[in-house]
Amino acid sequence: DIVMTQSPDSLALSLGERATINCKSSQSVFSNKNLLAWYQVKPGQPPKLLIYWASTRESGVPDRFSGSGSGTDFTLTISSLQAEDAAVYYCQQFYDSPSPWTFGQGTKVEIK
Amino acid sequence: EVHLEQSRAEVKRPGAAVKISCKPSGYTFTDFHMHWVQQAPGQGLEWMGLIDPDDGETIYADRFQGRVTITADTSTETVYMELSSLTSEDTAIYFCATGGDCTGGSCFRSHDVYPLRFWGQGTPVAVSS
Known about the structure:
Largest sheet of chain A: 7 strands, mixed
Oligomer: heterodimer
Structural class of chain B: mainly beta
Radius of gyration of chain B: 14 Å
Helix content of chain B: under 10%
Helix content of chain A: under 10%
Order of helices and strands of chain A: EEEEEEEEEEEEE
Structural class of chain A: mainly beta
Order of helices and strands of chain B: EEEEEEEEEEEEE
Number of strands of chain A: 13
Largest sheet of chain B: 7 strands, mixed
Shape of chain B: elongated
Largest interface: A-B, 28 and 29 residues
């Protein structure tokens, strides 16, 4: 199975600062598109899809969230942190479906 | 609008099995794969497996292989996830989730692969003696 590794495991930033989360896959997840997604998880809520195909923002997601990367290396950027962005963020590969999908271990974002 | 309705919370003894249901609406039942994801306390998201309701084909994560069974009932348009030989480590919230080409309130079968755009509310399962 493809292994997804995120960095850092956690970060604490002030309101308005830029947050950058990295995700590396053990093999390329490109198949016509980069089959890589980002999710936001808050306590007591189901995960929320933010970005898919590495850089396509899901409908309704604020434009301060952006995704980039290709092949095996990807980045989620929050351009200006808001209080409501405190959460755990996960990357996920959905390469060559149907095959086992895998999540990264998660990155916790805290507001200082 | 796509909605996934899951069954209610369960409490089980170690060694027992649990079967959770997920009833989607808002799209053609056989158009999208249904996935199951585990969220254990203090742990990350764990993809468990999927089913293609059109033909019943399943794919399971290695970690759950042999203990998880995902089925789809096309007559009631409901998907089930059964996890057997429960231990305290299976105490978690279990989500069903799906994704597809849905825009403007309508969904379409597509050649593109979509991630998990729509999620159920989650079913808490507690395993305790």
